[in-house]
Specification:
The strands form 15 sheets. Strands 48, 50, 51, 53, 54, 55, 56 and 57 form an 8-stranded antiparallel sheet that branches. A 7-stranded mixed sheet has the order 3-2-10-9-8-7-6, with no helix packed on it. Among the domains are: 163 residues, no CATH class; 128 residues, Immunoglobulins (Immunoglobulin-like); 89 residues, Immunoglobulin-like (Sandwich), CATH 2.60.40; 134 residues, PHR domain (Jelly Rolls). The chain has 12 helices and 58 strands. A hairpin with a 7-residue loop joins strand 4 and strand 5. The protein is mostly beta strands. The radius of gyration is 33 Å and the shape is globular.
Length: 954
Amino acid sequence: MGGERSHSGKVVILESTPSAQSTAHHAGAALAVGMPYGVCGCGYYTSPTRILDWAHGSGLLQQDGQLPGTKFTDGPDYVSTIKKAIGASVSDPLLDRDVSSFAGWRGTAEWTNSAISNGSLPGGGEMGTGTGTKGKAVLSGSVTTPPQPSAQRSLATQDLAAAAVASNAIVLENQKQGNPESEWGIDTASTNIEGFATDISVDNGNTVSFKINTNSTNYRIDIYRLGYYGGMGARKVTTIQHTGLQTQPNPLRNAATGTVDAGNWAVSASWTVPSDAVSGVYIAKLVRQDGTFGENQIPFIVRDDASHSDIVFQTADETWQAYNGWGGANFYGGNGPATGQGAGRAYALSYNRPIATRDGVGTYAGPQDYLFGAEYAGIYWLEQNGYDVSYMSGLDVDRYGSLLLNHKTYVDAGHDEYWSGQQRTNVEAARDAGVNLMFWSGNEVYWRTRWGNAYSADGTPYRTLISYKETWGPQGVSLDPTNEWTGTFRDPRLSPPAIGGGNPENSLTGQLFKVDDVGGNLASIKVAYDDANLRFWRNTSVANLQPGQTATLTKNYLGYEWDEAPDNGFDPAGLVKLSSTTLPVSTYLLDYGNTTGSANATHNLTLYRAPSGALVFGAGTVYWTWGLSDNHDNEATPTDPRVQQAMVNLLADMGIQPGTLQSGLTATTASSDHVAPTSTITVPATVTAGSTVTISGTAADTGGGVIASVEVSTDNGASWHPATGDENWTYSWVPAIAGTYTIRSRAVDDSINLETPSAGRTVTVTGPTFTSLFGGATPAVVNTDDAASVELGVKFQSSVAGTVSGIRFYKSSLDTGTHTGSLWSSTGTRLATLTFTNETASGWQNASFTSPVTLTAGQTYTASYHTNVGNYSTTANYFLSNVTSGPLTAPASGNGVYNYGNSAFPTSSFDQTNYWVDVMFNPSNANNTTPTAVADAGDATEKGGVANGSGGVV
């Protein structure tokens, strides 16, 4: 605001929002909406608009708070808050936001019984006197704004967002008296009283019903809302008493799917949710009152479909049900129809069942798979800090996905393993429309599901969760009777023709599940000095690290299942790794979802920005929220202010502020750096095919941030891979064949601004001195999820005599360690072997035999390489027909071969998969045939696989 500005005119206080005609009539006046609606917006010559919370009593009017408003040129502002009856706001979109708890604005105006005002209007110096008439008080005099705003106004102006949220529904709700956990919690669910809600969620103002099975004739249902409530953790909303005996029939069972459905039970009680009920996760606590002990809980969500809260929090209810073995089977075992892996599992599970997951009812079930494992800790912390949040179930995100667009940020927490295809589509659509995503979760978006109707006579939609878990089924056989894939999202082997496979979750979350249940081996997340200067860690002790130092977050947050952030061709552009922790594990996922084994795994916290501008955070661990709150089941674990502050920082960067920030944390603001960084490239103008080329460069950020990552493309932007370093970076490249290549780079800063790459540098590659099958072609999947020791090869023939001088293979960044290459006769005799040296991080690798091996035209040979750690490159269905390059041919029949274990002649094959092993062939006429680029017969989203050591298929 500039120097002193004044207006000699009227200040009009109205009882209702002015109409368009009234607005015109009062043009040039400073208007305020006041008694009896509890609102005042005095915004003339003032920006932002002041919002007054009027409290009438003993002749005193008190006003508190401020919200941002739109200033009309030479005209008044109108703002309506608190009272919905006042109608729509003319200038301020933040309707119905009470600001009474914000103390930055406070003043009084005394009114006499004759309705004559003497005193100051709020805002630092406006004065007026006048005589009121019914419904309107006209104050005459001069309205003046001083050149220097008051300290109170400065405070409010600097923290408008805090003022706006200070009295959001969550802040007000948590000011109410809570109830201790000793009252609303339970130690173990009783089996003599149990039930479920007829819908997992209900919009406020509607009715939720409960079906309860008990032999008690006297019990009550206490309804609680989960939150903070001064540390109590929940608040009792109401109690429903039930008397009389109700005998429920045996639940229905579908033998074909193993589904148990208690939808045939009768309704025992209902609750009409008040229209002003605050959205949240609620529990109905069942308590016997007949002298026999019995208690249980029924979780459900109260939605607010009209809400435009900053945050929408999604529960992981599909995962609660996936592990729920009530009635006989879950998705892991029991008395269901499945055979083989997960024998006895069900193919479909009903929401018409009590949820017994927390008490370990069901194969592998436990507290870690339920609400109080990690989700509740996130809920507790968000509400403790007064964040403006509303709630939806995972099921709701499928059926009401468009509601996500009403919010700034979507939050997913804990163990959220099971997602429907439509649920994922809706979350991706929200991201692409600018909604930020926070995945405070691990093993997330892993199994693909779909929805069906209830088996009970009512056939209620969205009551049956279906997943045949086809990744665990007989290979080559589709179990799901529909055309939808219900295996892991990443598994492409039957998709197509099925819809929905071959879509790894890291394209959405930035994270890929890799480390299965570690049991009690929970670990610590580490942040090295190189990551400490990222703005994500501002206002924490991590930011103070010195060179060579590493920060270790509180133990137990890394587990019980966690993810990696691989360079697999599906990773989002500009993905920034905020931490790095490498550990040996024995439960490393080796394939698409069947097999685990020993390996070194690397965890990273990640952040990227979608083209829409949405930020997407991936914690990559189930127990991330344990750093926010210690209110959770399983291991008692202290919170960590570094984790809490990092989330305050990130939410601020998403445009979200807390209303009641907890002591010890620092309020912060969104980044003002909107300028993308720049990068330069240094590379030789001419290089030789097969040689190792070091591409180097620099990167700089002029917007006030720091460089967070650099990515390099050697194919003119068709694919990108992370470089090593930041302000000074390098990337190793082995060009395979002669030609002209365009090298491009793009940097990303710590505000996640991604550089639009320049035209890059042109490199001429000379040679090669050999003929190969695949030339410079690249695999559909660079890193296949298989960490086993394996020999991989290709069968080939030559139409002319010649020699093989060496072996090539395409390397993924995770295929580390020593690699050997071999040439074999058709009968399995090893003709020559070599060891690869001077390898690059990824891409084509070449090595030569000590002496070339002479080949006979028309004979079949096998070229292979051996890896101790797997993670090889693949393209499925590549050898559906012969592949020819000059004199070389890779026959279609049974090609793409492998052998697990130590180096040995590979003979097994799967899905005509190309494992990207090649030969360096020299025809005996000494005139090299120009390699031919061959078409990739595999779909770009497909992954190949090979049989694992136990005979299964990965």
